[in-house]
Design goal:
- By secondary structure, this protein is of the alpha/beta class.
- It has 2 domains: about 140 residues, Aspartate Aminotransferase, domain 1, CATH 3.90.1150.10; about 250 residues, Type I PLP-dependent aspartate aminotransferase-like (Major domain) (Aspartate Aminotransferase, domain 2), CATH 3.40.640.
- Helices cover about 40% and strands about 15% of the residues.
- The protein has 13 helices and 17 strands.
- The chain has a 7-stranded mixed β-sheet, sandwiched between helices. It has a 4-stranded antiparallel β-sheet with strand order 13-14-17-16, sandwiched between helices.
- The chain is globular and about 70 Å long.
- It starts with 9 loop residues before the first strand and ends with a helix.
- The relative contact order is 0.17.
- It binds 4'-deoxy-4'-aminopyridoxal-5'-phosphate.
- The site of 4'-deoxy-4'-aminopyridoxal-5'-phosphate has 13 residues, from α3.
- GO terms for molecular function: lyase activity.
């Protein structure tokens, strides 16, 4: 299990008790790991710009930056020909890929995606929200067959899917989706923002083409993410940002520019070296820690949370796939008759519990789940939901405090 750099502060509750703030919002941003902080502290004396100078500071910083790229690539299961491009976060990574698509590419995605996977595509076909992993695979195959029949074999196709939903935590059948996509000559981009903190991400064993992650959900600081995958589209695309570092030559009149290949093509400007080094340190730690033991621990916490919440009258747990389907430590729910925003504030102020409230940057999906929950329970549902998510610092006590407080409210 990864060790956090700091635990949440104690909060004084209205009844006089002092308790650690129960942070159940890991899916939004995870606290920073000790190894990330240590890596930044180790590099601080060497604060210098990458790839820019011959001096020792620049050399050392450049080496640390490139080593991190390698470590993160290994963590994501990249193949020797893959490229690992540093971005600001998953949203930035998906937008970079959208920018790099060959002209005329059609992207196929599901309406259940996070907005980062739903919105960036210049030309997009959106599939309905599937009711099971198997129906996701079937619906993708049907759609790709119809698109090929209509548009012919030459049209570049990209399938963009999430590996684990940020609303339900449900794990998507990535290898099966990739198999179908490849049958029809489509590439696959996997949004692993929510899977990576909980489960191994493996481009090679999935046989997927691209993967995107965010450092701040992976126990590293804000501001560093990655797009990793096939080099050809990335190397043929115009640079994502035009500027220093992305060019190998600019003519005297600046009218002729030679852009570099490789990740530097899309990383113009001075990069976030500390973010990259911190993320590299976390990836190295996650690669060597007991992820199976950790996975079991998180599964116990989230199963306990889901079961206990579901037993409270008036509470509906949001799910898209059948109950019992594989899922990471995220549980979204709504309490009939209660505004979720008010409830989230009350949980924070009166109980010292932090959860997320809203539609979770997945508006069509969250609204669909709320309306399904209303149909299933026969109860009126609020307009938005609450989301509790667990991670490295979560205790059984945190989970039980949330359940008790929700029971009181309901
Ligand atoms: N995809 C998923 C599944 C997410 O949960 C998130 C963050 N909520 C994102 C993409 C976007 O991540 P970021 O805000 O770090 O760009």
């Amino acid at each position: 299990m990864i060790t956090l750099a700091a635990l949440p502060p104690q909060v004084a509750l209205p009844d006089g008790r002092k308790l650690p703030f129960a942070n159940l919002d890991y899916a939004a941003t995870a606290p920073v790991a000790r190894v990330a902080l240590d890596a930044v502290e180790d590099l601080l004396p060497w604060y210098g710009s990458v790839h820019r100078g011959a001096g020792a500071l620049s050399q050392k910083t450049s080496l640390a930056y490139e080593r991190s790229r390698q470590t993160i690539g290994d963590f994501l299961g990249t193949r020797p020909d893959d490229e690992v491009v540093f971005t600001r976060n998953t949203t930035d990574a998906m937008n970079l890929l959208a920018h790099a698509l060959p002209p005329g590419t059609l992207t196929v995605t599901f309406l259940g995606e996070h907005h980062a996977g739903l919105l960036p595509w210049p030309s997009v076909h959106r599939l309905p929200i599937p009711a099971s992993p198997a129906s996701a695979v079937a619906s993708l195959a049907d759609a790709l067959r119809a698109i090929r029949a209509r548009d012919g074999a030459a049209r570049p196709l990209l399938v963009a899917v999430t590996a684990a939903s940020n609303v339900t935590g449900e794990v998507w059948p990535i290898a099966e989706l990739v198999e179908q996509a490849h049958r029809f000559g489509a590439r696959v981009a996997v949004d692993a923002a929510q899977l990576a903190p909980h489960r191994p991400v493996d481009l090679s064993s999935w046989d997927a083409d691209y993967v995107a992650v965010s450092g701040h959900k992976l126990y590293a600081p804000f501001g560093c993410g990655v797009l990793a995958g096939r080099a050809d589209w990335l190397d043929q695309a115009p640079p994502y940002l035009a500027g220093g570092g992305a060019t190998s030559g600019v003519a005297d009149d600046a009218a002729t520019v030679t852009w570099t290949d490789g990740p530097a093509r899309h990383e113009a400007g001075t990069p976030n070296v500390f973010g990259a080094v911190a993320l590299g340190a976390v990836c190295a730690a996650l690669t060597s820690c007991d992820r199976v033991g950790w996975q079991d621990h998180e599964a116990r916490l989230s199963t306990r949370l889901e079961r206990r919440l579901a037993r409270i009258p008036g509470v509906a747990v949001l799910r898209s796939f059948p109950s019992g389907s594989d899922r990471v430590g995220i549980v979204s729910f709504a309490v009939s008759g209660h505004d979720s925003g008010d409830l989230a504030t009350w949980l924070s102020v009166e109980h010292g519990i932090g959860v997320r409230e809203g539609l979770f940057c997945a508006h069509p999906f969250s609204r669909h789940l709320l309306s399904e929950a209303g149909r299933r329970t026969g109860l009126p549902m609020p307009a938005t939901a609450l989301r509790a998510s667990v991670g490295a610092g979560t205790t059984t006590d945190d989970v039980d405090r949330l359940v008790e407080a929700v029971a009181k409210a309901a």
